[in-house]
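Incident log, structure service

09:12 report received: a user says their structure output differs between two submissions of the same chain.
09:20 pulled the input from the user's history:
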Amino acid sequence: MAGSLSGLNTALSALQYNRVVMDVASNNVANAGTDGYVRRRAVGESIGSSAVPALWSRVPGAEGGVGSGVRVGSIDRMADPYLDARARREHGAQSYLDTRSAVLQRVESGFGEPGNAGVAAAITAFRSSWHDLANSPNSEAARGLVISRGQALASAVNAQANALDAEMGDQRLRLLGHVVDVNTTAAELAATNRAIATARLDGADTGSLADQRDQLALRLADLAGGTATARADGGFDVTVNGVALVTGSQAGTLAIASGVTPAGAADGAPVTFAITMGPTTTTVPAGLSGVVGATEELLTTTLPGYAADLSTVVAGLADQVNTVHQAGYDRTGTAGQPFFTYTAGNAAGTLAVAITDPSAVAASGVAGGAVDGSNAAALGTAGSAEESYRRLVTGFGSQVASVKQLAATQRLLTAQVDNAREQLSGVSLDEEMVTMLSAQRAYEAAARVMTVVDSVLDTLINRTGVTR
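09:34 re-ran on a clean worker, output below:
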């Protein structure tokens, strides 16, 4: 309506707009500590003059080219899709490295190297006992010490192998749990996609649903390195190493195709995955990121590789000792028996001392039961197990240090991206306070305008033309 009454509508629009601004700021403050919340901003737009010619629009002085107030154009989420995508990628890499680093450090600490309780110390003590026997080949105590030190060495090796087996068993169980988490999160994201599409059709606000969508997508990136792609209807499609896991409102199912049984045992094959989407099952290429990718790599390559190398070193030590021991003679002059026994393919886990009778220790290099310690001296220096084991442990330690360094470097990149997102999407109480004060003053000014217009109308209506 033209004339003075239009001023009331203009003031009213200002009141309504600034009330929304204060409501949005209040909601931001209320959710300052809510995980995943992205702050909102009310965007105003001017209500222009009518673009449709009308009779009143030709009245001289009508509206005078002045707009008709302000309205809320949109309530924007302060999020950057490119920063969000970068954050998901960096978090996937961070989860991968953190998982590897934590597991490898735990395994390394279980070795007890260097120390007095590790395999290296047990090998040294075993060698020393042969030297002691070479100096006293007729000593029953020295012979018993050799057997005792051999058993201690076998126990130390067995303990390390068992610790590796236990760690791999734990990782298999964790992997089963992670796969369940992936499928649960994928189903939740598909449901959120459906809710967003429905809300958009209904014209409802989708801000809270978008926050939930972003959190779920980030969770999938942490778990399996999921890559999210925005849809036209506001949802996310997610792929895992190129294979679709979530497509709109449909969620696929990630499953362990080989390597781990449903009960958490190893089946002897490398760990692989497959995703079932409807009637189609697709094998996921190797090299996943996130926690699942790190666990896959640990179970398929790192831990089995170390266990195999340890068994190789142990088998070499046992074979060298057995060869020299069988070349000597025990106290009765009989040719020596194998000193160690083990199962092929798992020497570290099955190593044991075959001799229990001290008299059967082949310390002599001369047949006929002569008192001689030459074979014991040879056993004290036979082979290079110490050096082989040292190289193995040193190589593993270097790998652990490298992963720790990579995780620390990645942590800097992840923190940088998170800080950038926080600056844009996080709630600043100071900034929201300024926004509320500005909106409050604008609201008061609009109310004052309405009071002035009311006063003018009162004069026009009640006093114009009044005579005494």
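09:41 both user submissions now match this output. Likely a transient worker issue. Closing.
09:42 reviewer note: The mean pLDDT is 90. The first helix runs from residue 5 to 30.
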